[in-house]
Structures
1.
Amino acid sequence: MSREQLHGLMNDALKASDADQTEIVTMTSNSALTWYAENIIHQNVAEHTAQVQVRAVVGKKVGSASTADCSPEGLALIVRQASQAARLMPDDPGFPGLPSPQPIAAGRVGGWVAATAASQPGERVLAVKKVIERAEHEGLRAAGTYQVQNSELAVVSSMGTAAYQQYTVAALKAVVMGDDSSGYSLMSSADVADIDPEVTGEQAVRTAVETRHPAEVEPGAFEVVLSPFAVEELMGMLAYLALSARSVEQHTCFLEGHEGEQISSPIVSLYDDGLDPAGMPVPFDFEGMPKHRVDFLTQGKGGNVVYDSYYAAKMGRATTGHSLQQPNDIGPYPLNIFMGAGDSSEADMVSHVERGIYVTRFWYGNPVEPRGAVVTGTTRDGTYLIENGRKTHGVRNLRFTQGLVDMLAHTVEISRNRAVLASSFGIGAMVLPSIRVEGFQFTGVTR
Amino acid sequence: MDKFTERVIAGAKRLGASYCDCRLIDMEREDVSVVGGAPRAVVHAHQRGFGVRVIANGAWGFSSSSVVTDAEADHIAEEAVAIAHASALAKKKDVVLAPVALSQDMIPHQADVDPFTIPDSDKIGLLAEATRTMMLPGVVLARGQMQFLKERKIFASSEGSYIVQDRVESGAGVSAMAASDEGDVQVRSYPMSFSGDNAQSGWEFVEAMKLLEHAEPTARGALALLSAKPCPSGVKDLVVGGQQLALQVHESCGHPSELDRVMGMEASFAGTSFLTPDKKGSFRYGSDIVNLTADPTIPHALGGLVYDDEGVRGRKVYLVRGGIFEHYLNSRASAPVVGEEPMGAMRADGFARCPIVRMVSINLEPGDLTFEQLIAGVEDGLYVDGIKSWSIDDRRLNFQFGSEIGWEIRGGKLQDMVRNPTYTGVTYEFWRSCDGIGNPELYHVWGVDNCGKGEPMQVAHVSHGTSPARFRHVQVGVLHE
């Protein structure tokens, strides 16, 4: 659908609402995914879905309803249902009302590429075949996905908000496995032309080959070099635990009460920027509010957290444009996290380690103690021992139990190059470098 | 067969599909969330759509749409077949499905009181009162939530099955978060953490929870944890409560038994499994008393079903019997590879996603010990319960779990409460150390509505029947500083 068609449908439904305030959020998605494993394609799927979410406000009462039916009749029905739901609700004294419209930096950001939207299943299959053939050449087994997504996000409200963005995502992932080792690679972009299956396959194959016959190392504190994939897993957990107004409410935010104080290493800057074209930008949130850059850490000094309109009102702040679909129980969320680039390379970092561990990827991270963002998880798909400045051989996967705030305090080197890693939410991306960290805590070893 | 699914299947066959199934699903959801006595989120959701799975030229194709019209039926059938032909460009051999008994059936839901007939104001009122009751001095956050689902699913296949299944689910729970001046934060939940307990039942299931009666004790538990001693560190005997054991069963038995994982199909996301086919029938997974079942037939269990999303009638199998690994969770395509018959574990998250192998109700069969007997058998140990944190490696071997609450055990008796209890181990070593399981009176089937798997991610509703159980020589209290 075009912006005009979608907004036209939504505005017609808005006019039919009898609530004091009404908001309609529509997401449409045409996505396709080729899923391969053991050097064959075992699923190849497409889905064409729409979701319309309506918030209706009557006084201090808020009702919500959603539907997959994007027809004029479907929209009219869901608006009526939301309004009826609102009238049956008790007052929510903390509800501030729908936010007033604000100018959105439309045109400043890209995010939609026609070639991605038009890509065909045969093209995905041929790309996947290249990864498989590269793995087979080394006697290895390839698994992964090639996903292409063409989506729209539109928000209108009776307050005058009218926001629309189309965006595309292409992401090719490869896990290549041998008998006792594996390697990983992921390439993602708004533009399918940026996806190079040969590079993706080569990186995963090389790691699987280099980490064959892994040795076992005793757990303990190690200097580590973390690839962007590993950093992504940890930053995802940090976002969940500690970078939003909800984390302040839950007393798990390490930034609370420490604005301007030196919290982490002075080389660490961490921020969210939904407008930066280096990532996968969407210039507004699910309330149609413009995204503002939020600096969590600037050269290690404590900054702010992200807000939506509800938490902004509750905490006497302005929304930063980080609302997820409302209502929700997650609170505001940073979908475009960046870590500032350093001046090193991954090879430099490895060369600076006398004895340490290189981590390609972490897996199954989960909080152990939310305060300090202590999390546990394991390494996966390419864990190396570093000796005398070289990755010498693979090691068995290790369990870590590490405070992320502490980790950022002991980050001593950051790479110039950063990877764009599409979000598993289907919107947004993290842009992250490799980092070198001292004293990273490994607490167990896998079999 | 209805005209819509008939049209889809006829269209796919006309375009060259050798097999086609269509699932047409109409689903309502309601999610209610209350914080500190005030409604935070009430969401009514309705979804209707269909998914079409085909085999053409020996390869799979799948497409789905939320537009249920004749024109879209033709378009999606055509797209599914086209995708199958594209898949065939990289096939090594043709997909072969195990034969399945054809069914014409209509399955009713198991709810007594349709939860969608209960006014929102009643649901919010109950949670508001419960969360207000929990806001004792020192409690900084009291949450309550309810979730309900009502679904009609039509499954039709080109082989001739036509199955209509109705399903109603209800769930609820409350939690209290307490914070100390020193910055410690502790949480207690009732009846289970995260979204509470869930079942294929109606409003009667929520009423039976007696949330109001349990609100204040739950909050007092969170407050008590603030002054509890830290979890000791060392190798100790461990009694795991039923709720925590549900997580243990889920992560260390349910997932590694999924045959698609074993065959590498999940390698790029959730990983593989240590339960390789060479271990089937001989591998000692646990001690002699460990019997783990996959049983979709338990009445009201959240993971229960009559037919799966391939039209296979669900049946009970032993994943582990007498401690020996015996059977997988499987599908029509994967079961023949390891000499099994399909047992009804293929499920999709809604109409838009393609079915994959999922847990049903995975259960640890009860033993014969009372709770007091389990504790009495421990000289120096720990009792833990309440799911707080979980992590397990990509082969499902090395795990580390955290519980909301624990107590030291000394001389066969529960002693001091401990905070932030954790334990870690290797799956088969842990289960082999099991020397006592609680009796049927301690048994409960927990409903878990957040099991993630697959790409794109699919969330399944599963369940786990457990009693508390005792394990010897377990590493507890993982130090990280």
2.
Amino acid sequence: MNDSHYCPHTPEEIAEMLSDIGVASVEDLFSPIPSELRATTFNIPPGMSEFETFSRMQAIAGENRQGMINFIGGGFYDHIIPSVVDHLSGRSEFYTAYTPYQPECSQGTLQALFEYQTAICRLTGLDVSNASLYDGGTACAEAAMMALRVTGRNKIVIDGCVSPFSRQVLKTYLFNLDVEVVEITPLDGLLNRAELNSVLDDSVAAVLVQNPNFFGGIEDFTPLADQVHSAGALIIASVYPISLGILKSPGEIGIDIAVGDGQSLGNPLSFGGPSFGFIAAKKAFIRNMPGRIVGETVDRNGKRGYVLTLQAREQHIKRHKATSNICSNQGLCALRGLIFLSSVGKEGLADLAVLNRDKAEYAKEQLSSLPGVSVLQSTVTFNEFTLFLPKNADGVVASLLEHGIAAGVPLGQYYEGSENCLVVTVTEKRTKKEIDIFVKELEVALCN
Amino acid sequence: MSMYFTKEHEWVKVEGNVGTMGISDHAAHELGDITFVELPKIGATVKQFGVLGSIESVKAASDIFAPVSGKVTKINDALDLAPEAVNEGAEDAGWMAQVEIADESELKNLMTQAQYDDYLKTL
Amino acid sequence: MQLIYEQSTPGRRGVKLPASDVPAAPALPAFLLRTEKAGLAEVSELDLVRHFTNLSRRNFSVDTNFYPLGSCTMKYNAKVLENAAALFAPFHPMTALLPGGEDFCQGTLGMLYDMGQMLADITGMDEVTTQPLAGAHGEMTGIMLIAAYHAAKGNKAKKKYVVVPDSSHGTNPASAAIAGYEIITVPTAPYGDMDLELFKKAMTDEVAAVMMTCPNTLGLFNPHIKEISDIAHSHDALMYYDGANLNAIMGKVKPGDVGFDVIHVNLHKTFGTPHGGGGPGSGPVGVKNALIPFLPQPRIIMDEDGKLLLETTNPGTIGRTANFFGNFGVMVKAYAYIIMLGREGLIQVSEQAVLNANYIKEKLKPYYNLPYDMICMHECVFSASKQLEHGVHAIDIAKFLIDKGYHPPTVYFPMIVKEAIMIEPTETESKATMDAFIEVMIEAAQTAENNPQALLDAPLTMPISRLDETKAAREQKVCCIG
């Protein structure tokens, strides 16, 4: 019986192949596995048709609350995705290809990644980009390890305003290495400069900041970059790519390595993945970059073409001395990012950034006019801001969830003493009507 | 002036207490087109058979080991922009570093040109 | 082909954005703003569509070409999996992390939990974390779990080494290095497996883990695997299973039964999710009970009423290896694949993957040197040593195959085989496809003898001929200037 229609052989073909191999049965091919080691149980349920499979998946998706109105971010953002992104990345010549190790039959993927690297360089204002990393959190960790290699030092300083998830990932990555990680406790949702000054010594390899930070605040890190450089360290910034439609680029600020999560660039929320991490740096650090890099070259006839380059940095050649253990990139997600950026384009990304900020400013004004509600930060924000509520934010969020509104991320579990703080995100997808409903519902929740 | 070799295919030319070092023509040929040479820093101290630097081609990367111990006094900066110099003349313009030889007796741990040529035949 | 940036016209747009329904906010202070807009493409929607459609046509892919790429399991990617993944696109991962948020995510959390249970059954493990984002990420997570295990026993300082065979994937030593270990490499014996005597010599109480792929990268199942595990365990070293080759053994043998303590699974290989031109992958990690206390957080658990919850307060955890729950969209596809094929279907996958590899091996044996001539599992490794006598390398055979419409096998890996050609047909290819491939491989061998220059000149039918990789590495032009 043919249990999987994806295995095409007929019994006659199988018999013919076995005879060519010179064995009596398929079971004979498993004879190298000692019989005492063979599996005695296998409890996967019986299979089903693709129609039944799809119905089952629909039922599973149906067990999640549908149509939630998102005012949450925390690193993943509910942005528009132009139709072309799904259609073009859905070309199976892209998504059923493998890593472009054979460049002659992979120019599609390779040129797209070269264009992606170009987009990331132009967005960040830096010289070089790789072909993408796993996600924003692991990109922070990879950037820190890159700084350790570049400087030969052994201390990483992280601003506590960096996403708590990314900070945790970074600490997990560095835990087993001979590296000290110092966290700066935030001051009113901003970098505590005094505390930073007290730890910035000549053992620091890098200072990692996020802009806009987890509280939503935007800071001008230009003077900080100078200060960090004069201490002989590198400055790494985790950035939100949509905000770079208008905000000063990492390159203009003096950042050495910029990283971030590319989800907001054309990748669906999809319960947290797949997305991609991006990393861009000053040219001098290219040999210390992790992961795949595509480079331009020429063929035997002088025709322009693209190849994976500087592979001698990577694990398949350098093994334990590689710049990273990463093997894959998030190729298809990076392609989605490129298509997204090329679709909205130069003018569109700036407009999109302005639209996000306008919506957020409107929501901020409406929400902070509720009795007892105030805005935490004195600084400017992009599309996220922190509210100070008259009561514990956890209960408020839980009660609004019942009404189909994800009101924001309560800070209590991430920052001690912040139990009344709520980070609210407003993207271009939220309508004025949705914002007004949110304001009303919050008012009710605060009265109860 | 005499030239000595290691089993890992590095050479050192000795002039007084100055040792000039690089990789052998054989090693350069085996690696293929060289794309990058990582050199030590001036003032660094290297140990005999310890890591001096590293070298990369498109498909390979290997460490370069110092044939003798000493303090690095000079490096061949030109390789930064033109690593192909190693392919063109590994035992000449493709030199990598010069050291102040710390202990001349270490030379007895190395092969002479004739010994190295014989060694290559055994590979 | 032109780059998308070379087709730009200032002011042109590819999509219309929603109009604003709120008042414009006062502008930000100038010192926070970028001085010039980012130089992204400026093209119309149609130009954009043509550009990427034409780019896609410059790729070989599973849907267009046979792709017998050893070690990568390039099987067919069922289309229903794509439809299934789209159902989950709107769900925000933060929802589950909000107070009481799990209640609203029982579908997605439940699927991850079930996925863990099924993978645990397939691999013989006790619990699975779905957080790692790819195979190498799983390896790193797994070795960190092992490091935490040793540290909890007070052996952090004592355990210094990870042992790997010389046939291992490069990611194994690279991942172990991030977890703080030094590497001991054990050579392969003439019988194709890690040399048992040298392995015994390498094993001391300072070894933290042994990382193995089984079947190994030569496609051979190591009959001494139980003995190797017993020796490792006698030194309190844990056994790590690189799941890259799991496609060969589903339902036949479980790594957990033969002594492995930690395993990663490559969902994009074994469980039929597309490779995406190099990612996204997904690398769930399975562990035995002794390692559960160290699993990454948030960990998905089920209470007595069958409700799924997130555990975030485990003191022993290694922390977090990714921001959320792993590559969820990839897991949807793998989950749908497993429930669709079911028990018998998965067994059949492994049986026919092994059948196909042995068939190609036997058919090509007269023409190519087969350094380890025995029954293989899901892949076989030839050497182009006979062809080298005519000045033809494995890479030349690879380029010849491109001209014939085949994606080449993996070449030059594993490194222990000179001029390696590693063929993994997978179970989804028909006999007719394989027979045609075999004919072309035979033609390549004959051409190597009769007209070697033809192989050295290949490929001639692609948009470009062989590329100058040295120039790329020396010049490092990695983005378009201007």
3.
Amino acid sequence: MSTPLIEIRSAPHVKAPRTVEMIMRHVVWSLLPICAFYVVQYGISALASIVVVTATCLLTEKFFIRTGTQSGQLTDYSAAITGLLLALTLPPGFPLWMGAVAGLVAIVLGKAIFGGIGHNLFNPALVGRAFVQAAFPTSIATYTPSFLTGRFTEFIPSSVAWPLMIPADTVVWMQSKQLDALAGATPLAKWKFDGVMANAVELLTSLSGHMAVGPAPALVLLCGLYLALRRFMDWRIPVAILGSAALTAWLLYAVDSTRYPNPFFMLFSGGLILGAVYMATDMVTSPVTPRGMWVYGALIGLLTVVIRYYSGLPEGVMYAILLGNAASPLIERITQPLTFGRGAPGRSREGTPGYVSRTDADAAIPKKRFLRNKPKK
Amino acid sequence: MKFLNYFRGETFARGIHPPQHKETATMPIRRLPFAPRLIVHLSQQVGRPARPLVRVGQEVVRGQPIAAAEGFISVPHHAPASGVVEAIRLHPTANGPWGEAIVIRVHPGSTQEVLWEQPQYLPALDADELIEAVQDTGIVGLGGGVFPTHAKLKVPKEWPVDTLVVNGCECEPYLTSDHRIMVEQPADIIAGIGIVRQLLGGPRAIIGIEDNKPDAVEAIRARLPDDGSVSVEAVPTKYPQGAGEMLIKTLAGREVPPDSRSYQIGAYVQNVATLAYMGALMPKGRGFIERVITVVGTAVDRPGNYLVPIGTPLRFLLDYVGARDQSLEVVFGGPMMGQAVGSLDTPVTKGVSGILVFRGRDVAERAARKTYPCIKCGECVECCPMGLNPSTLGMLAAKRQYELMSERYFLGTCFECGSCSYVCPANIPLVQQFRVAKRILREKAAA
């Protein structure tokens, strides 16, 4: 017998099939139906926006990987997620060149300067959006109604503005569609500045015509559910965010129902659902400890409602998540898991020496609690 | 509804579910023939190496003591076959460094009959004599710990033990040797439990068996003594259920505090194979010369549970089971915590419960996976049975901040089950780094 080559590796010698690429790929897949519906709502402008922003993100990422200044590779899909998410948070009629700027900033300032995947402190997509919010405040606040006629044949005029040029005002264009200027305001802005509140069901599905809303919350929740069930996303964070936002909104609503909107409106308007399901759950920028995830989610939910109610801005999800990202190292530090055996001595169920076997307990206490250990007949 | 186990208080928190691969579970134990040369290492145990009792050229018979224990934390070794002592020389061990070993050239006519024994009536012995009798068999912790069993049995008087936890979980994938012992030798296990109970002052015994082995549960349940002192529990199948601390948590609901021994909370854990061999060997006064080993893996043509004489060289064993390939990875123990062996001249030692042989190309495929920076997905935190934070520990290890790891993140609690490395999607060698960190810290503490 010829001596075979011997491989020596350190244990463990088996490995779970899950990889980073696999997680990211599933997130991208789950985003595709949301993008598709978004395109149905807003037509080719939305499609162009998604394509341009995502392509910019990918190209920028490629550049920084080529120069060797950042870890990861294009096939890990993380830049694709950033691009798609960023495009979904921008208004559909957002000028394409500004979208490209947002994508560039998202990768450069949000990711590459920190060292690439795994090293960034803030969600790159939100860094990009925060930048364009500060740089182009008018354009980012200009929404157009959904389900306009002819949305698949003509661009929204603001989309196709020349680079570095101020985009055309959409008011004139909307008047030509027999819509008043108010139709272009988001439900949150309408509530904040005009006191008009939208119906919760309409908000949830985004199917009612001519409402200026982002991706449909119901669809986002559905796709998020898929990710959570396949364990590609942690379910605790969205539950914590939505729970804390709903609780805060409900408390304020109970105090003064004329001044504050009902909690359903809070949950389903604006970007809260998208932010809670896709932005805040970004693994890299959220705490790694289970208890930390609850704290982090609760903080974001609370901040969102507070910003929406008490600041000059109609929308607060982005800043709430960025603040949550900033706080997450601190949260992680104070929520380390409880190490085995370090719990309070009283925590153990049967801490005392007079232990009764579960088989005996099974005989004494009928069924229920010890279902699994019944001897087979 | 498996995840509800923990909430119903049936098992420990977290843990993982790797594919089980218990293909050899239904294969009865078969004997392996004697190799032409058997190599008995003097140090197969934790503690000091044994002292040889034989000279080169001396004839030995199967079962004869050939090396004596050197002090209390040490065990004697016995001749696994009749033959001639050919040499006492350095030989490769699984850990890497070569160790002194007695090489026996086996007589071609050596029979399976054990020719050296000293029958004894165990109930008449007092505690010290009984511990001595355990030491004379040369048994060590067969689950892989290889700590001398008699030394572990010397529980300080001030800590009364009320629960004897018998570990029949065998949670490592692939391994089925304990399973077969439980199915085929339940009487030996009960006898072994009797000896340990006699020593510890009669605590009640609970045998914990993972619920993927219903036949083992049935086999043992049929042999339980009538007085109700021993009971069998089917525990949820989850890795690492077979870790002592985890099984105590599952069966007795108690957590062993850090830096403590399990007897300090009144529990004592013993592996089921160790007990089976104690029960089989001690009444006859025999030595521990062979054990059941699962040989399995992608490269093995004839996998199975073999009764292997201690000292059988790996080359002979692999030839017998038909493991041939361009390149191989040979692991002593289970896939999660086992030790990869560097030389085919390494002999089987007392602590080997399984031998896994993988084809080199399977291993290469796994090794080719790209390693990413930690994406903080939290998988490792959700699986660490000790409630550590492997993600943060891994990042600190990469920065070599070992003191911080042990002071703030309780590195010392880690028992290296490997769950974190198994699940990590970024393919970060977490437990491997922790092993290095622990070793460096130990060396620093010793210096």
